[in-house]
Amino acid sequence: GNINLAGIGSDLSLQSDMWSFWEGFAVFGGKIEILGGIERSGILLIDREGANDDDVSVYVHTTSSLITPYAGTAIAVRGSKDVVLDGAVVAGGTIGEHGVTFATAGDATALITAGATLWLNNAVAASGDITINAGKVFLDTVSGLTSAGIVASGGSVITVNATGDIQVLGHILSGGNTEQTFDKDVVVEEEQNRNY
Questions:
Q1: Do residues 129 and 92 make contact, with C-beta atoms less than 8 angstroms apart?
Q2: CA 117 to CA 44: how far, in whole Å?
Q3: Within a 13 Å sphere around the CA of 21, how many CA atoms are in the beta-carbon half?
Q4: Cβ(150)–Cβ(107) below 8 Å
Q5: How far, in Å, CA of 38 to CA of 3, rounded?
Q6: What is the Cβ-side half-sphere exposure of residue 142, based on CA atoms within 13 angstroms?
Q7: How far apart are CA 55 and CA 159, in angstroms?
Q8: pLDDT, mean of residues 102-106
C-alpha cells in the first residue's frame, strides 16, 4: 500500500523476525527503518536469522519507493540474510520528472545491511552518506548509488563493505547528482551530472 506521512519527524519502523516485504510508495518526514529477520530491542539489534524460503530477509518490490524528503533524515534497511532492493530508496529528496531533487540543507543518509547478499536493482540516493554492508554486493545495470554531497561540513561518502564479492554493473556517483531528460518514448535523451 501507499503511506504518506510527510510531516517532519514522522517515522516508519517495519520489523519481522522472519522477513519483511514492501510494495508501495512510502513518504515519511522522519526516518524509515525496515528490519527483516532482525529484532530491535531498544538500541540493540538481535539477529533472528529469519528469511523466506529463498533466503530473502527484506524485499522491496520493483513498483515501490522509500522516500524521506527532508534534510537530516535517514533510511535504514537491514536483513539477516539476502536483501533485494528492486524499488527506489531516496533519503533527503523527492523524485521528479528529471530525477531526484534534494532538500537544500542536506545531511540525509541511507544505510543498507545484508547478512548475505545485497541485490540492488534500482537507485539508492541520499543528500549525505550512503553505507552498504553485506556478505556480497551485486549492483545490476539499472542500479545506482548517488550521494549528492549536500552536507553541513566536508563531503559525502559512499562506502561499500563486503566480506565476499562486489559486482558493480550500475553507476556510483559521490558529490553530485544526475539529471535526465526523456524523449516522447520515455527513452533517456540527455543525462548530465551536477556537482555540489
A1: no
A2: 22
A3: 8
A4: yes
A5: 23
A6: 9
A7: 25
A8: 90
Contact 124, 130 (CB under 8 A): yes
Tens digit of each residue's pLDDT (9 = 90 or more) over 154-177: 788 999 999 999 999 999 999 888
Distance CA 142, CA 75 (A): 21
Q: How far apart are CA 52 and CA 155, in angstroms?
A: 38
With cell 526523456, the residue in question is 182
CB count in 10 Å sphere of residue 194: 11
Amino acid at 181: T
- For residue 17, the one-letter residue type is D
Provide the 10 A C-beta neighbour count for residue 58: 29
Model pTM score: 0.91
All three cell numbers of 97: 520528472
User: What are the C-alpha distances in Å from 179 to residues 104, 112, 118, 134, 193?
Assistant: 16, 24, 26, 29, 6
